[in-house]
Amino acid sequence: MNYLKNTYDCIVVGAGHAGCEAAVSAARLGAKVLLCTLNIDNIALMPCNPAIGGPAKSTIVREIDALGGVMGEAADATYIQMRMLNSSKGPAVRALRAQSDKKQYMDYMRNVIENNKNIYLRQACITDLIAENGVITGAVDEFGIEYKARTVILTTGTSLCGRIFVGLKSYSAGRLGEMAAIGLSDSLKKLGINIKKLKTGTPPRVDKRTIDYSKMQIQPPDEELYFYSFKPDRPVRPQVPCYLTRTTEETHRIIRENLDKSPMFQGLIEGVGPRYCPSIEDKVVRFAQNPSHHIFVEPEGLGTYEVYIQGFSSSLPADVQVKMLHTLPGLEKAHVIKPAYAVEYDYVPAVQTMHSLMSKNIQGLFFAGQINGTSGYEEAAGQGLIAGINAVNYLNNSEMLELSRSSSYIGTLIDDLVTKDIQDPYRMLTSRSEYRLLLRQDNADARLTEIGRKIGLIDDAQFKVYTEKQQNIEKEMSRLLEHKISATDKVNEILAKYGENMERGMKAAELLKRPNITYKILQEIDETTANLNVARDIYEQVEVLIKYEGYLKR
């Protein structure tokens, strides 16, 4: 039936991280969007770790922001801890990581969606796609209600024929407490699209009141605060620590003795799991020589007792999980709120998709997120943004946005997906990019803001911040290339603390090229540089550009 003449420009199926970015970008570009989700209370849910960013992923978040997406500003608005990882290493591998308040993040994203007059929310399970002569024309939900649209974006996450495993027990579900999407896979097959299976998993959640943190190593937030978004006026929020504990020999013994109850080891799951995020039983078997493994205890939010046990993903039976947990220092009396589980789901190998994320088989049909074979919120959000933009480009008969490998991690990610036969859930790594020294988190705005502006997703305020920043970088670069620092006794006394010495006066830029010298040291030895009080985001860019000039030119 045609229900109330439901006609839209774009239907987005799924309101996870890919679906939210797809819906918001398409709507901001003028499309009338129907956003369908299995549970309207789970918009932008973090079903696994309550965190945004980390190695390579933080660069994707900054790229999303530079193009006009939402994830960066949502992470900034809801963080409960910010840490810069690999801060002592080179700029290509430095990575911001935000511990997020899970509930606040969902509320923020839902507020963005509900305040966009072009987005129409609907709790519905899409079970069928309608296509005529290889062109998408709409979709149908479980009640037989038909929705017409010239574009459909599938962002189904783990819901597509999802099946949850806890020990040898299993049932149909995409996530714990949420039904699976049944029917859509069959519809895709009828359209000539190949479907395969993947597997992922998540750790248990425990009650923090039953944890003895004194037996763990505290992981405090950084003193220096960084943000994801390039937008002005980022919020300063209260922060809380995470904690580190470790598995013991007793943990490993319990796991080894119960492998016969593991659905993975008993061959009940055919989907391949994520290579870079294995289950705890996988780690114990594959790395038998390791006496222990790191386990991080992370809060899920400021208003909840629920904590996430990172590194303890499992599909062993619930009672075995409790025994395992109780062998971890500090978790001897932990009360489990939610068990760990594995989930197997359908995905569409992205070799059937173009760089625009549109299907090669069906015009107007786009895919983004885990349905393309990826793992991770950030990877999903980046794809969702591109799919939303290109759905509007398709509607307008405009040129598709296809980011190159040299332009971004998002471009690298999509190129890998559509050109390689991915066998396990794809996670973005700095090592996947041959341009990683160019594709840093600190310069995402310089690489992509003008593209976002041209598309129409960057507003005047953000573009003004961007242009002023680039002008200030050029200005300070030019100054350092000309400004001379004298080799005085006082200067050399300070430099000696850092294992450096000046035998002659030299230009500030020449001195900054030395490995041990930072811009902060220049401020310490040079009154002119100190008095300029250059903003951190400016001098950090300047330092990288001067230090790595030779590598960047190559």
Describe the structure.
This protein is 33% helix and 21% strand. With 554 residues, it is α+β, with helices and mostly antiparallel strands. Among the domains are: 205-343, Elongation Factor Tu (Ef-tu), domain 3, CATH 2.40.30.260; 460-553, tRNA uridine 5-carboxymethylaminomethyl modification enzyme MnmG/GidA (Arc Repressor Mutant, subunit A, Orthogonal Bundle), CATH 1.10.10. Strand 8 (135-141) and strand 9 form a beta hairpin. Helix 2 (57-67) packs parallel to helix 11 and helix 6 (249-257) runs antiparallel to helix 8. The termini are far apart. Belongs to the MnmG family. One of its GO terms (biological process) is tRNA methylation. Residues 460-554 form the tRNA uridine 5-carboxymethylaminomethyl modification enzyme C-terminal N-terninal subdomain domain. Homodimer. Heterotetramer of two MnmE and two MnmG subunits.
